[in-house]
């Protein structure tokens, strides 16, 4: 059966690539796109553009909504989709814990699958998993995430997810010197249970992360680089295929592929 897909954010860096991927997949039909502005032309001959998600869903009846937009819009999109029984596949990052809990409750109430993937790249998912295992033995962890300078949320969803996965294998503990002081605010980065997260934003970068795990006389560095947004596309395809088979919220692709 062909899966009817709608996509929010079609003119973004990720959105453009995802539209091309969905169109060329014979198991998917791109039925509509949701844009924030009215002046976007239709894609191809038959893919209409909407600025209202409600109208888009009522008129084109998608099975799945892929969201690649901005943190300020994605939560409303996901809630609306779930209300209508449309399954969200969300790549947009920047959810608060409260928003995630609200979505989880909504998924339970509606019994409609939803996938939130802070990172669609298989290599990044493996890096997170390896970091989670390594932190059991080397619990002093610092995460350095590096992205292009147009990214609006920090730290990245991948860094937050990595820290959350590590929290499952590492006890809460403060790192560094007990009386360490920042002489310039922010020098030690964000603090998650004592783990430090540092966000770098520079033109030229795409999406990169290092997890540094230090021990006596040793350092383990796990590094992943997405050089191109093509690295995310197979994860989007997999998520669309999987979300129609599920009725729970999946947060992170590791629950599907590992
Ligand atoms: P981008 O180039 O800034 O694209 C975002 C797009 O969303 C823009 O075209 C923007 O349009 C559109 N938009 C904003 N508000 C909207 C709304 N209310 N309805 C519909 N569209 C709206 O960003 P990007 O690099 O493509 O990234 C998009 C998101 O994906 C970000 O949250 C990023 O962190 C995330 N991301 C995730 C992964 C992953 O693997 N999960 C990988 C890379 C990026 P206007 O500018 O015209 O408003």
Observed structural traits:
binds NADP nicotinamide-adenine-dinucleotide phosphate; 7-stranded parallel beta sheet; elongated; 8 helices; 12 strands; 5-stranded mixed beta sheet; 258 residues; 34% helix; alpha/beta
Written description of the protein model:
The strands form two sheets. Strands 3-2-1-4-5-6-12 form a seven-stranded parallel beta sheet, sandwiched between helices. It has a five-stranded mixed beta sheet with strand order 8-9-7-10-11, with helices on one face. The longest helix is centred in the middle third of the chain and has 16 residues, at 122-137. The model has no long low-confidence stretch (mean pLDDT 95). It has helices spanning 13-24, 53-60, 71-83, 97-110, 122-137, 157-167, 233-243, 254-257, and strands at residues 3-8, 28-34, 49-50, 64-67, 87-90, 114-116, 140-147, 190-192, 195-201, 207-215, 218-226, 249-251. Strand 5, helix 4 and strand 6 (114-116) form a beta-alpha-beta unit. Helix 3 (71-83) packs parallel to helix 4 (97-110) and helix 5 (122-137) packs parallel to helix 6. Helix content is 34%, strand content 25%. It has 258 residues and is an alpha/beta fold. The radius of gyration is 19 Å and the shape is elongated. The structure holds NADP nicotinamide-adenine-dinucleotide phosphate (NAP). NADP nicotinamide-adenine-dinucleotide phosphate binds at residues 8-9, 11-15, 34-37, 68-70, 73, 91-94, 117-120, 150-151, 207, 232.
